[in-house]
Design brief:
Blueprint lengths: L10 E5 L9 E7 L14 E7 L5 H7 L6 E7 L23 E7 L2 H8 L17 H12 L3 H29 L23 H18 L6 H33 L5
Antiparallel strand pairs: 1-2, 2-3, 3-5, 4-5
Length: 263
């Protein structure tokens, strides 16, 4: 079936918890029209909604648009995005603060999206089978869901480690294949290349130790601190005094050797 694109502006309707809600919230929606569509947001069946309140979840949005038809999926996001970006898998999910979001509602048929765009009133979020959790009930529900069963946690950890090990093995295998020579004799250099080493003999060890000693001597700070300057001056004075005493003895010996002795 050929899809007809609609480029009209946003439509505003009030979103209520119940029929008797005194302070409804206004949401804005239109058809999700982008250049590149993904499998989770198909063209002609996706409704784009902004200003979605934090208390509205999947089932609440389904109840609100139930008069338009059957909904295939509801996806929430903090910011609009045309296509899904590949993200690194994390074991611990990031906890985001409650805030207003955008939603992508995918209907099962194109005609159901047409009916949703022509709606003049939305159904309440709450129904006989469902009630949106607010306040203390919501906090208790979120806390209970955050505490995982030990058995389920163990299975999740094992699955995460298994996936991680498989990804590492695939990367190492790919790097190993790249390290082999191709038909033209070329070898692709990767960051996991082999580190070339050499056998250390006694002569090489002595040379390395000598270089290390020279580096240490160059790094030493001579006559930098006040006490070093004072000690060097004292040593210099002592050396001058010793030299003076030695010179006096030499002069006395020279005079004694040159004294005239007639008899």
């Amino acid at each position: 079936m050929k899809v007809v694109k609609r480029l009209h502006d946003f439509k505003a309707l009030q979103l209520k918890l119940t029929e008797d809600s005194v302070s409804p919230h206004t949401i804005y929606f239109k058809e999700h029209v982008v250049r590149e569509h993904t499998s989770d947001k198909p063209s002609g069946r996706t409704l784009f909604i902004v200003n979605v309140p934090p208390y509205a979840d999947d089932q609440g949005i389904i109840n609100a648009f139930s008069s338009a038809g059957k909904i295939h999926s509801v996806q929430f996001s903090l910011k609009p995005k045309a296509a899904d970006t590949m993200k690194q898998k994390q074991f611990i999910d990031n906890v985001t603060k409650p805030s207003f979001r955008v939603a992508y509602v995918v209907f099962k048929k194109v005609s159901e999206l047409d009916r949703a765009l022509k709606l003049t009133k939305l159904q309440p979020l709450n129904s006989k089978e469902y009630e949106a959790k607010l306040g203390m009930k919501k906090w208790i529900h979120e806390y209970n869901n955050s505490v995982m069963n030990p058995k389920a946690l163990k299975e999740r950890v094992e699955e995460f480690i298994k996936t991680h090990d498989k990804e590492n093995a695939d990367v190492q295998q790919r790097d190993k294949e790249l390290g082999q020579e191709d038909e033209d004799g070329w070898v692709t250099v990767t960051k996991r290349g082999k580190i070339q080493s050499f056998a250390r003999t006694e002569n090489i060890e002595n040379k390395i130790m000598a270089k290390e000693e020279q580096k240490k001597k160059r790094k030493e700070l001579k006559n930098f601190y006040t006490f070093q300057i004072r000690e060097s001056k004292m040593k210099h004075i002592v050396a001058l005094r010793q030299k003076f005493e030695e010179d006096k003895k030499k002069i006395a010996q020279i005079k004694q050797s040159r004294r005239f002795k007639p008899f």
